[in-house]
Specification:
Strand order of the largest sheet: 1-2-6-5-4-3
Strand content: 25-35%
Number of strands: 10
Helix content: 25-40%
Order of helices and strands: HEEHEEEEHEHEHEHE
Largest sheet: 6 strands, antiparallel
Shape: elongated
Number of domains: 2
Distance between the termini: 27 Å
Structural class: alpha+beta
Low-confidence stretches: 6-20
Oligomer: single chain
């Protein structure tokens, strides 16, 4: 059963019906600023607001193959605004209007749900917006996310922490022979850390992703990255990790994280990432 985020309950004000018609809503709460990305709806008012710097929260970011909500952690500065609307306003209508308005402003909507309660998550670059609605109230939270410090993930413990917190982590120190899927001998050291992570978390499943820069033919980059990802999974399997806990995926140059026009950018784009994926029964 889905439960509504406690932030809604935190802000719910007491109210009374005035006559048989619409409520005469009070003025906006003094000192609160409306969202520029999704201003308050007609017949609604700002009831409360809060700013947190820093803030950490878990945000709904999609659903897995079983329909279970997938969350992602966010760290950054957040601005929350609680709105009260007229009787007759429904959670579904609030979220539908939010989705349309945010899409028009260039946001993607990775998660949207509507029933007796409703919510959505929107993202544009490092700005995340959540809208949670219950009854005739809704809370909008804008979070300017701080990028994770993946540079600090240099051993099994720190990589596991990043996987737990962010769901993925780049792995440095894995090298392949030029143009081939064969591992360089020095890669064994960091792969031993990956084994340590998997043994310390027996319920985890990981996908090994291999990314390239944009030099060379796209199809060749995709093929080589796929072979390299498969080679890494094979190595881990031969060294004691059950195959059912691993997936491999070659990404080619489809997901750059830096400018491919510069050598430093291309170096960042040529990377290997571990991605935490929904667990089956622990192996």
């Amino acid at each position: 059963m889905r439960r509504f985020p406690p932030v809604i309950l935190l802000f719910l004000p007491l109210f009374t019906l005035r006559g048989q018609g619409l409520l005469k809503l009070p003025a906006d709460q003094a000192g609160c600023v409306d969202s520029k990305n999704f201003p308050k709806l007609l017949e609604c008012r700002i009831d409360n607001c809060e700013k947190k710097d820093p803030d950490h929260r878990e945000v709904s970011a999609g659903e897995d193959e079983k329909g279970e909500t997938i969350t992602t952690p966010l760290d950054g500065i957040s601005h929350s605004v609680m709105y009260e609307c007229q009787e007759g306003t429904t959670p579904a209508s609030i979220v539908e209007q939010a989705a349309a308005a945010l899409k028009a402003k260039g946001f993607e909507i990775p998660y949207q749900f509507a029933d007796a309660e409703a919510s959505l998550t929107a993202r544009k670059d490092d700005l995340w917006i959540t809208v949670d609605a219950a009854s005739r109230f809704y809370t909008l939270i804008e979070t300017a996310a701080a990028p994770p410090d993946f540079e600090a993930a240099t051993d099994a413990e720190s990589m596991a922490e990043m996987l737990e917190r962010y769901g993925h982590v780049p792995v440095k120190g894995i090298e392949f022979m030029t143009g081939r899927p064969d591992l360089e001998p020095s890669s064994v050291l960091i792969l031993a850390d990956v084994i340590t992570i998997l043994k310390a978390h027996p319920g985890w499943r990981l996908r090994v992703e291999v990314h390239t820069d944009n030099r060379g033919a796209k199809m060749e980059n995709m093929a080589l990255s796929s072979k390299r990802a498969a080679a890494l999974v094979t190595w881990l399997t031969l060294n004691g990790i059950k195959r059912t806990r691993l997936e491999s995926q070659g990404m080619g140059d489809t997901k750059p994280i830096a400018d491919n026009l510069t050598e430093p950018g291309r170096i960042r784009n040529r990377r290997i990432e571990l991605v935490k994926i929904p667990s089956l029964t622990a192996q």
